[in-house]
Design a protein that fits this description.
By secondary structure, this protein is of the alpha/beta class. About 40% of the residues lie in helices and about 35% in strands. A hairpin with a 4-residue loop joins strand 1 and strand 2. The radius of gyration is 20 Å and the shape is globular.
């Protein structure tokens, strides 16, 4: 093989490795985002308790900074089960944006901002914001919530906070690879 052909071979091999690595990286983040945020949002939109429960580890701990409470998974989930069975419950839309993601092979730490909205009985759209920190664990090839903390930071989390965070699809802005 001539040196020119060898150089061309090395360039092509390098590009294949780079593109394959980028594709795997993107799939990794898409899976986390779908398992956690896609399913979380879908459960809220459809008041789907089974889907909501499925994204939580059986060992999950829920911490409400604004409410000053720590709950085990079943107590936390029972609150949603009861609320979503009530025929007067209105559908909520919840969206997430991230500030930071730190990953290992089986754990993910995500910090971000959420925006929840619903339409009240006067047909007015109301928004609520909070800052969250979740620890996800890979269980049977699915990312599940192990620890879930959120707070409205004494009412300081707002539309500007939400807008300043990054879209879930823009993982290169919020991801810190700690492998």
């Amino acid at each position: 093989m001539s040196s020119k052909n060898y150089s061309l071979f090395l360039v092509i091999a390098f590009l294949i490795i780079v593109f394959q690595s980028y594709g795997q990286e993107e799939l990794f983040h898409q899976k986390i985002n779908q398992d956690m945020y896609g399913n979380f949002s879908e459960a809220f939109k459809n008041l789907d308790y089974s889907l909501f429960a499925s994204i939580h580890s059986k060992e999950m701990i829920r911490i409400s900074g604004s409410g000053g409470e720590i709950k085990k998974v079943q107590d936390y989930l029972n609150g949603y089960k009861k609320r979503w069975k009530n025929p007067k419950t209105t559908v909520s839309i919840i969206n997430f944006r991230l500030l930071e993601r730190i990953t290992s092979d089986t754990l993910v730490s995500d910090r971000g901002i959420y925006r929840a909205s619903y339409t009240n009985d006067k047909n007015e759209k109301k928004f609520f914001y909070g800052k969250f920190h979740v620890l996800l664990r890979l269980e049977n090839n699915t990312w599940k919530i192990l620890i879930d903390y959120d707070s409205d930071e004494k009412g300081t989390i707002n539309q500007q906070s939400y807008d300043a965070a990054f879209s879930l699809s823009n993982y290169k802005k919020y991801w810190e690879n700690k492998n």
